[in-house]
Amino acid sequence: MQTSNPVFRNDPFSKAPVMGAAMTVSGAVWKTSFLLMLAVVSGSATWVLFASGRPLVIPFAVGASFLGFLMAIAISFKPTWAPAMAPVYALVEGVFLGGISAFMNQRYPGIALAAAGGTVATLAAMLFAYQSGLIRATDKFKRGVIAATIGIFIFYMAAMVLHWFGVKIPLINGSGLWSIGFSVFVVVIAALNLVLDFDQIEQGAQAGAPKYMEWYSAFGLMVTLVWLYIEILRLLAKLSDRR
Question: Where are the domains of the chain?
Answer without folding.
Answer: 20-241
